[in-house]
Amino acid sequence: MDRKILEDTGLTPKEVDVYLALISSDQASISDIMNKAKVSRKSIYEILQKLLDKGLVSYTIKDNKKQYTAVTPKKLIDLLKEKEANLETILPELLRKHKESEEEISVRVYIGKEGMKTVLNNILKLEKPYYVIANEDKVLDFLKYFMPQFIKKRKELNIPIKIIHSECIRKKKLKLPLAEIKHLPDEYNTPTTTIICEDNVDMLIFSEENPIAIHIKSKETAQSFMNYFNLMWSIAKK
Questions:
Q1: Residue 67: which of 48, 42, 50 has the closest Cα?
Q2: For residue 45, what pLDDT is reported?
Q3: 32-49: per-residue pLDDT in tens?
Q4: Equal fold, 3-78 vs 106-235
Q5: Could you write out the DSSP letters of every residue in the chain?
Q6: Where are the domains positioned within the chain?
Q7: Phi, psi (deg, nearest 5) at residue 219
Q8: CATH number of the domain at 106-235, out of 3.30.870.10, 1.10.10.60, 3.40.50.720, 3.40.640.10?
Q9: Which CATH number applies to 3-78?
Q10: How far apart are CA 168 and CA 152, in angstroms?
């Protein structure tokens, strides 16, 4: 017999020993059970009480002594059904907590200038502050007709931003509304412009032939990029 199946119903190894000893007997005294199950007197009473509580054992009193009997093994099925029913009562709460903790991650890739415009417009729709690690000022050059309208709209929506540029941009003396700008040495310059807003990360990769915008929606990823931004911001100079 596979004892593990019995243990999987919630019985301890010692409880299995005692239950199997009783299954093979019509009635058994404490001494009989101890001998068959190889259980000490110190633990037999506690084990029997647990089996009684689970409804797997009953007893009668004969000559002022308890005689124990195993209840039909079908009771084990009832125990499992009871466990399942108990689980069902808390399942909705467990599912709710699981949904709260489960993070949905989505990644979208946009090709071409129109794709970049879509990504930037979606950022404005959030109407939240955002943070930029910029590739020089390529976004201004690459989307030179779109960006003035974008900046105007951001100002109208009163959306503040923080931007990290490389030192080579300082001489251009960029003036952007509601923007705080810092600069890093040119060796920190990145080929990609990264924008972090709430749980969103957008990366703009500039290429005349095949410009790409990658949008990632992930709380964990956004937090990771935000940590990196804060580190760079602490190093950068105004």
A1: 48
A2: 92
A3: 999 999 999 989 999 999
A4: no
A5: --HHHHHHTT--HHHHHHHHHHHT-SSB-HHHHHHHHT--HHHHHHHHHHHHHTTSEEEEEETTEEEEEEPPTHHHHHHHHHHHHHHHHHHHHHHHHHHHHPPP-EEEEEEHHHHHHHHHHHHHHHTS-EEEE-STTHHHHHTTTTHHHHHHHHHHTT--EEEEEEGGGGGG----TTEEEEEE-GGG--SEEEEEETTEEEEEE--SS--EEEEEE-HHHHHHHHHHHHHHHHH-B-
A6: 3-78, 106-235
A7: -60, -45
A8: 3.30.870.10
A9: 1.10.10.10
A10: 25
The series of mean pLDDT values per 10 residues for the chain, 238 residues long, is 83 91 87 91 92 90 88 87 88 77 78 91 95 77 85 95 85 82 83 92 86 92 95 91
Asked whether 183 and 169 are in contact (CB, 8 A), the reply is yes
Q: Which amino acid is at 152?
A: K
Per-residue pLDDT at 101: 55
Nearest-angstrom CA–CA distance, 213 and 5: 55
Q: How many residues does the chain have?
A: 238
What pLDDT score was predicted for residue 113? 87
Burial status of residue 79 (CB atoms within 10 A of its CB: 0-12, 13-18, 19 or more): middle
**Does residue 202 contact residue 106 with C-beta atoms inside 8 Å?**
no
In order of 21, 28, 52, the CA distances from 75 in angstroms are 16, 19, 12
